[in-house]
Each structure stands twice: as structure tokens, then as C-alpha cells.
Amino acid sequence: MVAKIIDGKELSKKILEDVKKKIQQNNQKPGLAIVLVGNNPASEIYVGLKEKKSKELGINCERYDLDELISEEELLNRVDELNQKKDIHGIVVQLPLPQHINDELVVNSVLPHKDVDGFTPVNQGNLVNDNNMLVPATARACIELIKSTGTEIKGKNAVIIGRSKIVGKPVFLLLLQENATATICHSKTKNIAKHTKNADILIAACGVPKLVKKDMVKEGAIVIDVGINRTDEGIVGDVDYENVKEVAGHITPVPGGVGPMTIALLLDNILQAMELHK
Fold first, then answer.
1. Is this structure's pTM higher than 0.90?
2. Cβ neighbours for 113, distance < 8 A, ≥ 6 positions apart
3. Alpha carbon distance 139, 70 (integer Å)
4. Nearest-CA neighbor of 111 among 127, 92, 138?
5. What's the rounded Cα separation, in Å, for the pair 34 and 264?
6. In 51-80, which positions are buried (b, 16+ CB within 10 angstroms) versus exposed (e)?
7. Residue 229 — φ and ψ, nearest 5°?
8. Fewer Cβ within 10 Å of end Cβ, the chain: N or C?
9. Which CATH superfamily, name and number, covers 136-259?
10. How far apart are CA 15 and CA 261, in angstroms?
């Protein structure tokens, strides 16, 4: 068996086309503010991509490049200013922030209905209560990629490696909403392979290059690789792709899988945020 490749680039194009069409049909253009503090090279790439795609779709994108030495108070004041701007429907504070700034404090200062990343306690709590107001885009991407295979999620055993509030926990909750039997594994889990071998759906989101090996994967499983790890051999995922694709039924590549879908669904979140303003 050789796995079918789940093409995130192609799927994301369809989502972006749909978002663009909705924007063209709307009397009001959505507004996005992206806040970048310092000059982290990876963050520069992500922000540039979000800005470029936003403008291509007709979203008014305002980018704020702030000095790395900005104080926490100054940054909070800047976020508050954006909270008050009526033409800004979504705010993205690019993470990570410099060490002298409390990431959580700044992220939590974004108004929940402008929190297109879905990271605030209100939006995380909404997800727990099955009220998907604004859901983290990467978590949404995982679910959409699984559904694109035509496989019904209901009743399946799903295992997530990683418990971050950006991916692991929200994906867990979304899988429960889809009536999967979901399990989260993490760095303190004993014998992870015992769990992964039983997974019909396996989502790797732990940030460890090629952690998931061929002998950890159930034959025919859907494998979603969220990892983006920079190594001497280039960018690799959390899954040993070349070997795992020999046993998996479907698998996402890195790059070209979850990444493009995350960008597309973040932009879709901006449309949803604009609706919340009405």
C-alpha cells in the first residue's frame, strides 16, 4: 500500500476562491491588522504570506512592524487601539513575542470577536461548549483535510500527539464534535506507539522531527502532519513521511499539507469575524 497524498495546496485554493467570492459580494471589505514585534525570520515569512494572501483576496490588511524593545505596556496599548478601530475586524499578534513580553497577556487582550487566531480564553471556552465562534485555523485545517479524504470521522479512533492550545487541544475538541473517540498523547505519555497503532486518524503536532515512524502507524490510517521543523536536510514534519506513506491510507506532505490550509482558514476566520461585528 502506498498512501494517497492529501494536497493542502489544492484544497486551500478552493477555500480562498470561496472567500474571495464572498468578499466581492459584500458591500463591506473585511479589515485585518497584523502585529509583528521584532525581526524573527520565521515570523517575517508567516506575516508576509498572510499579508500577501489577504491583499489578493481583497482584505484590507494593515501591518504593524514594532521594535523588538517595545515595552509590554506599549504593545498592550497598541492592541487596545486596534480593538477600538471599527474598520478592523480581525487582529493577529504574531507569535512568539520577545522574551520580556508575556505572550498570553497580549493575546488575551485581543477582543474575542476580533480574535481570528482563536487563542483567547473566551474562544477556547466557546469551543469546549461546542460554540465554534472563532476556531484556531490550524485545528480547522486538520479537520478539513481529514474530511477531504471522504472518510467519515464518526466512530473512528483518533490520536493526537501534542497538547498545545493552538493545535492539540482544539483538534481534540473538534474531533469530539465529529463523534470520534479521541486521545491526546504528549511528552509524558508512556509508550506512545501503543496508542498510535490503534489510530484510524493520527495527527502529529508535537514539533519533533520525524517522531512518527512506520511501525507506529496502523495500516490504512489517515495521517495529518502539522509539524514544520527546520533541520540540516531542510524542512521536515513530525512524521517520517517517506516510510510512513508505505503503510498509511492517506497522508499530508510537509510542506504543502496543513500549512496552506491554515492560511486559507485564517482568512476565512476574518470573514466570520466581520459577521460578528454586524
1. yes
2. 133, 134, 273, 276, 277
3. 31
4. 92
5. 15
6. bebbeebebbbbbbeeeeebeeeebeebbe
7. -120, 125
8. C
9. NAD(P)-binding Rossmann-like Domain (3.40.50.720)
10. 8
Task: Locate the domains of the chain by residue range.
Answer: 27-111, 136-259
Q: How are strands ordered across the β-sheet holding 181-185?
A: 4-5, 250-251, 222-225, 201-204, 157-161, 181-185
Q: By C-alpha distance, which of 51, 55, 64 is closest to 29?
A: 55
Cell numbers given for 108:
488575551
User: Cell triple for residue 158?
Assistant: 483518533
Please state, in angstroms and rounded to a whole number, the distance separating the CA atoms of residues 210 and 122. Answer: 34
Judge residue 192's burial from the number of C-beta atoms within 10 Å of its C-beta, 0-12 exposed, 13-18 middle, 19 or more buried: middle
What pLDDT score does 167 carry? 97
d(CA 76, CA 101): 10
Q: Which three cell numbers stand for residue 99?
A: 522574551
Q: For residues 222 and 80, what is the distance between their CA atoms, to the nearest angstrom?
A: 42
CA angle 211, 147, 251 (to 5 degrees): 30
Q: Which fold has domain 27-111?
A: Rossmann fold (3.40.50)
CATH topology agreement for domains 27-111 and 136-259: yes
Contact 138, 145 (CB under 8 A): no
Q: Are 269 and 90 in contact (CB under 8 A)?
A: yes
CA distance linking residue 55 with residue 161, whole number of Å:
34
Query: Sign of dihedral through CA atoms 11, 14, 20, 22?
Result: negative
With bands split at pLDDT 50, 70 and 90, how would you rate the model's confidence at 233? confident
**Residue 278, pLDDT above cutoff 80:** no
> What positions carry a catalytic annotation?
50, 94, 117
